[in-house]
Specification:
Layout (H helix, E strand, L loop, with lengths): L5 H8 L8 E7 L3 E2 L2 E2 L2 H14 L4 H18 L2 H5 L2 E7 L4 E7 L6 E5 L5 H9 L2 E7 L3 E8 L2 E9 L13 H33 L2 E8 L1 H8 L4 H4 L2 E5 L7 H33 L3 E3 L1 H9 L3 E6 L6 E5 L5 E2 L13 E5 H11 L3 E4 L4 H4 L4 E5 L8
Parallel strand pairs: 7-10, 10-11, 13-17
Antiparallel strand pairs: 1-4, 1-6, 2-3, 4-5, 7-8, 8-9, 12-18, 13-18, 14-15, 14-16
Helix pairs in contact: 10-11
The structure holds zinc ion.
The site of zinc ion has 8 residues, from loops.
């Protein structure tokens, strides 16, 4: 389960700029070689590169050394030894410090900039959200919050549904129809209740998808009752005989999560190809995507690995450009530079847009690694 929240990330994204440097550090704390942590050598090497870069500016250099001490202390802490990865942000000059332990290792990196470099933490946050897993039949259901580490029961419900009985005697036909209808009503009521509870559970934590386990017919019926925003998030359905045995559920869910992760990338990339081909409801390339995000048109963002590209933001009118520029073409005010991926992710989060992180897609590469699926139900004269 995630050890940090959206609030931590927002706090980092909201750090004011123009107040001197922020040192961002990512470390893999899971591997120890001999008596030394794995992160020590790579970070030492990065630190000396940064020292060379700051050699002309003794005050910046001094500030950097202070940040580095704070970061090394955090990486050597008990919390870091228990975590597999650590993200540490330090800006000694403004009294800002944040250490975030993570369940998964980060690639070792040290970044000095005017703003915290949040992209790897955001990516981990998006990738490591768990799944809502529903095990259901006609009258019983259990809802789990699941991730690669296991499944935790968060809700269960049961309803007395009349069993499939056979009417006897002369009035067989009519009576049987009544019994069947009665039973169907109960199942419908039960599945509606379950759909409602799932709707609540979805909002209580950050999940990346829904997995449905049960008999095929039951799942089909139930899925039809889900509100649209949830039914679009069903990433996997699989036949599953009712059980409450935790070990069996854990094992199944682990396998299903692997499959769901792989098929999730494919689903969204297929959809992207289709829309690019039709030239319909799609934005491709950084600047188009920025405009679409700002206009509230995006339903899903598709983002490849961070190329480290630079964006510029106008300090006056807040226009955002997907490239380097010194002054704003609209109001002539100076622009400030920042990481392009971070700016796009910040916009997406702010607009509550669904983010898909995908690896290695030639189609996406043709558009500089970023595209967006647009909502189709726009008003014609918006
Ligand atoms: Zn401007």
């Amino acid at each position: 389960m995630l050890t940090y929240t959206r609030d931590h990330i927002q706090m980092l994204l909201d750090q004011p700029r123009g107040m001197g440097m922020v040192v961002s550090c990512y470390a893999n704390t899971s591997v120890v070689e001999g008596f030394e942590s794995h992160w020590l050598q790579p970070l030492k090497a990065e630190a000396s590169k940064i020292r060379q870069h700051l050699a002309e500016d003794p005050r910046a250099l001094e500030e950097f050394e202070r940040d580095l001490v704070a970061i090394r202390n955090a990486l050597g802490s008990q919390a870091a030894r228990q975590a597999r990865g650590m993200a540490v942000f330090s800006a000694a000059a403004r009294g800002f410090f944040l250490a975030v332990p993570s369940d998964s290792p980060f690639e070792d990196r040290l970044v000095v900039d005017e703003e915290p470099y949040v992209v790897p933490l955001l990516e981990a946050y998006i990738r490591e959200r768990g799944y809502l897993v529903v095990v259901a039949d006609t009258h019983r259901a259990r809802v789990y919050a699941s991730d690669a580490g296991g499944s935790r029961l968060i809700d269960e419900l049961e309803e007395a549904v009349p069993s499939k009985t056979r009417a006897a005697g002369e009035r067989w036909g009519k009576q049987q129809a009544t019994i069947d209808r009665h039973r169907k009503d109960h199942i419908l009521h039960f599945h509606k209740e379950l759909a409602q509870r799932l709707d609540q559970a979805w909002d209580e934590a950050a999940y990346q998808g829904i997995v449905l386990l049960g008999e095929r017919e039951v799942l089909e019926h139930f899925r039809g009752l889900l509100v649209d925003r949830l039914s679009r998030r069903v990433v996997h359905e699989a036949p599953f005989a009712w059980t409450e045995a935790q070990a069996e559920i854990d094992a199944t869910v682990r396998g299903v999560i692997e499959t769901a992760r792989a098929s999730g990338d494919k689903r969204v990339l297929d959809e992207l190809s289709r829309r690019l081909h039709e030239a319909c409801a799609v934005a491709a390339g950084p600047q188009e995507v920025i405009e679409a995000l700002r206009n509230g048109q995006v339903s899903e963002l598709i983002l490849g690995p961070d190329p480290g590209a630079i964006a510029s933001r106008c300090t006056n009118c807040d226009s955002l450009f997907a490239f380097e520029r010194d002054t704003c073409p609209f109001c002539s005010a100076p622009c400030r530079r920042g990481n392009l991926w971070q700016q796009i992710l910040d916009l997406a989060l702010g607009h509550g847009v669904w983010v898909n992180l995908v690896r290695g897609s030639p189609e996406l590469e043709r558009h500089s690694g970023v595209a967006a699926l647009l909502a189709r139900n726009e008003a014609q004269w918006a």
